Amino acid sequence: MPDTVSYERRDAIAVLLTEFCFRADNGLGATVAELFSEEATLDTPHLNLRGKADIHAWFANHPTDRLTRHCWTNMRVTALGKDRYRVEYNVMTSVGQAPAPVQGGRFGIGSGADEVDFASGTPLFVSRALKIVFQGMLAAPETSA
């Protein structure tokens, strides 16, 4: 069983995860790096970013016709110290080209493992790591003849 973590801290971490998804999915990529510490890392099978400047550059330069949706669930929080927490969860990401509705696309379902720090008074990602468990293509909707 993970260490006891206050509901206040757990809720703040849930808000941070949700805010990342909202910004990444709604054309606010230029603001995503605000959720990370200066030396933060972000590692996925598709990218390895080092530092807040790299994170900003990658998210701020997303193509405008790229649609994403991130959904997370089953968050588990473990205290690593006074202000640092390990956050584990499941995540599903779908990616396609605009306009919506996307006619096909790809998806990935995986496990996330983050470290979040409250030392600044505000929760910030120190590291984010994603391991893909399932991936595939989204079927195009059937058209009626």
List the topology elements.
Layout lengths: L6 H19 L10 E8 L4 E3 L1 H9 L5 E14 L4 E14 L7 E13 L6 E15 L7
Parallel strand pairs: 1-6
Antiparallel strand pairs: 1-2, 3-4, 4-5, 5-6
What does the model show?
This protein has about 140 residues and is α+β, with helices and mostly antiparallel strands. The chain has one domain (about 5-135): Nuclear Transport Factor 2, Chain: A. The protein contains two helices and six strands; from the N terminus they run αββαββββ. The protein has helices spanning about 5-25, 50-60, and strands at about 35-45, 50, 65-80, 85-95, 105-115, 125-140. A six-stranded mixed sheet has the order 2-1-6-5-4-3, covered by helices on one side. Strand 3 and strand 4 form a beta hairpin.
H-E string: HEEHEEEE
Alpha plus pi helix count: 2
The fraction of residues assigned to DSSP E strands is over 45%
CATH topology call: Nuclear Transport Factor 2, Chain: A
What characterizes the major β-sheet?
6 strands, mixed
Class based on secondary structure composition and strand pairing: alpha+beta
Can you name the CATH architecture?
Answer: Roll
What percent of residues adopt helix (DSSP H or I)?
10-25%
Shape: globular
Which stretches of 5+ consecutive residues score pLDDT under 50?
none
Q: How are the strands of the biggest sheet laid out side by side?
A: 2-1-6-5-4-3
Quick gist of this model?
With 145 residues, this protein is an alpha+beta fold. It has helices at 7-25, 52-60; strands spanning 36-43, 48-50, 66-79, 84-97, 105-117, 124-138. β1 (36-43) and β2 (48-50) form a beta hairpin.
